[in-house]
Amino acid sequence: xxxxxxxxxxAGNVGATxxxxxxxxxxGDVVMVDIIDGVPQGKSLDMAQASPVELFDAGITGxxxxxxxxxxxxxxxxxxxxxxxxxxxEDLLQTNASIVGSVTENVVKYSPDCVIVMLTNPLDIMTYxxxxxxxxxxxxxxxxxxVLDSARxxxxxxxxxxxxxxxxxxLVMGGHGDTMVxxxxxxxxxxxxxxxxxSEERIEEMAQRTRDGGAEVVNLxxxxxxxxxxxxxxLMAEAILRDKKRLIPCSAHxxxxxxxxxxxxxxPIKLGANGVEQIIEVELTxxxxxxxxKSAQTYREGIALLxx
Length: 308
Ligand code: APR
Known about the structure:
Layout: E1 5-9, H1 13-24, E2 29-33, H2 39-48, H3 51-54, E3 60-63, E4 74-77, H4 89-110, E5 115-118, H5 123-134, E6 141-143, H6 146-161, E7 168-169, E8 172-173, E9 181-182, E10 188-189, E11 192-193, H7 200-211, H8 213-221, H9 227-241, E12 246-255, E13 261-272, E14 275-279, H10 286-305
Residues 9-15, 33-36, 39, 78-82, 96, 99, 102-103, 119-121, 224, 226 line the site of adenosine-5-diphosphoribose.
């Protein structure tokens, strides 16, 4: 059987980390594309030279040319610009929309049958934009946010209880940002919902630390984190390429679920070879539903700025 092909657009911190995790999982051959000459080529050569040490068989190459991505099964888009001093969120939105737009056109030209996994921020808005530009059915465009956000929540719970991260399953819905909605009732340790194990007050502290998870890393590192985001992208690539049908939170296109229509937002989905194979509607309290819809309102304003 021929190897699968995964392209990663943007060979920066997150893109390169995702590429390495994907190669180590031997999900297929990896191609990195960037606009800075030498970066995708140099990083991929360096990673390929780690393969005899770490013992993984995966082609890893880098290019400035989208032709190298032709026929990809999965394309991960991480290309974007960080927020620079003096730049408003709106400026960043326009800058990254223009990058994501041109990248998506090139991706679609060379890999018309791929599943696109979006990472560039503002995530839920960029995923919507890529979907529109791609002309793909919405199941084939999905955003990474909930896997990372719930990983952070899981990690904090494991620390709190002194138990293995393996036994913790968490659900964090909503947007990737201040409006995310961690759901303790749907978060379990060895099958036991956490409200039975941890006080309400401590749970809320951990939920807040999860909401601020990105900022906590930025404050320390002076740039966005990338290990956990890279790992989360690799998990999504694996779910698609191995048709694992993982039930995980991702940014998906809603068409009325949770009272939200024609927006991308973080919800539990089934992720497999066809991308978003199902959107799961869980029962929410009025407060939870309100938080989700508040999240949605922000994104509706965001896509309106892009003319949608
Ligand atoms: N085509 C391809 N690559 C591009 C383009 C483009 N049009 N524009 C920028 N890039 C590349 C940059 O050259 C850089 O290597 O995207 C990469 C982004 O990498 P980093 O700056 O290291 O950012 P990273 O931490 O990886 O985060 C990626 O995620 O958090 C979001 O929106 C944020 O843009 C950021 C993205």
